[in-house]
Amino acid sequence: MNDLPESSGYPELLVAEPLVRTEIKIGYARVSGSGQKLERQIDALTAAGCRKIFADKKSGKTALRPELKACHAFLDAGDTLVVPSLDRYGRSLQDLITMVAELREHGIGFTSLHENLDTTTPGGRLVFHVFAALAEFIRELIVQGTREGLAAARARGRVGGRPTVATEEVIRAARDLLPDPGRSITSIAKLLGVSPGTLYNHIPDLRELRAGAVPHQLEVTER
Fold first, then answer.
1. What is the pTM (predicted TM-score) of this model?
2. Residues 7, 8, 32, 59: which is the catalytic one?
3. Rounded to an integer, what distance in angstroms lies between the CA atom of residue 115 and that of residue 28?
């Protein structure tokens, strides 16, 4: 299988695992709704052999998950991060792939119990390699569709350049593109034909979407 292009921002996910493994499993759980409880997730992580479990108990749209940040800081090279399911860790495919790639850069394994995925195995690494390629493909489709939509609008006689008011289509496309760490807000605005200020004015949670684009929460420390 060919490597992902360098522009994707992902390291090679199929490289060999670190020679030294601590066999330490650290769990992370998260609720995504007011009616959900953590007990079932924590029980599953405990049964999986997690030595310590971090849990974010607040839902909401905020990208600042304090327990996830603490979990990342606690992990050491050779450890394995265990989550109940993929959607408990990443809020989107892009978010998931970026964080798993960052874990691997630090020599940390990743396991999702529900999907039975484990990056410490060749099969698990292959799955995430495919995920990364899929995320890249989806981003390209979004960009292509946006460009075609703008071209169609111009062909119908609309004035080119920056619209004074962002349409629902433009805002939807912007929300799809903002989590992409490879694109700046300025470049996204230029692609969509609006000003960066328009995006800030029409997308209240813009900073949260951008915060999820580049996690960089991983700080391996001495335990």
1. 0.60
2. 32
3. 15
